Amino acid sequence: MRILKKLLEIICKNINKGNGLKHLCQVLNLPIEQTIVVEDAGNDVEALKVAGLAVVMDNAIDEIKQYGDVIVSDCDHDGCVEAIKNYLLEE
């Protein structure tokens, strides 16, 4: 069996995860430099650009990887857990 995955996102102009992260930081009174995002797709670029630490999953396409400060394992190999342990819970 062959499964084709397609995705269509329709959003308002200038609405993206980066702007959402900025807004959340303002609401929480948190410096954006203290944020970490873990991302893997094209709709994540703006968040990767503004976060304090941009973590990219290894399963992301190369075009997305260029925006990461670090690359962790892919989704099937606990990349998000790796990011949390290595960067969020570091002493």
Descriptors:
4 helices; 91 residues; alpha/beta; three-stranded parallel sheet
Q: Could you walk me through the main structural features you see in this protein, from its secondary elements to its overall organization?
A:
This protein has four helices and three strands. By secondary structure, it is an alpha/beta fold. Strands 1-2-3 form a three-stranded parallel beta sheet. Helix 2 links the parallel strand 1 and strand 2 (53-57). The relative contact order is 0.15. The model has no long low-confidence stretch (mean pLDDT 90).
List the helices and strands and how they pair.
Blueprint: H1 17-28, E1 36-39, H2 45-50, E2 53-57, H3 62-65, E3 70-72, H4 79-88
Parallel strand pairs: 1-2, 2-3
Which structural class is indicated by helix and strand composition?
A: alpha/beta
Mean pLDDT level: 90
Q: Which sheet architecture does the biggest sheet show?
A: 3 strands, parallel
Q: Hey, roughly how much beta strand do the residues contain? A: 5-15%
Please tally the helical runs, counting DSSP H or I stretches of 4 or more residues: 4
Q: Unreliable segments (pLDDT under 50, ≥5 consecutive)?
A: none
- Percent helix, as a range, is 25-40%
Reading side by side through the largest sheet, how are the strands ordered?
1-2-3
Shape: globular
Which series of helices and strands comes N to C? HEHEHEH
Radius of gyration: 14 Å
Find the count of extended strands (DSSP E, 2+ residues). Answer: 3
Distance between the termini: 47 Å
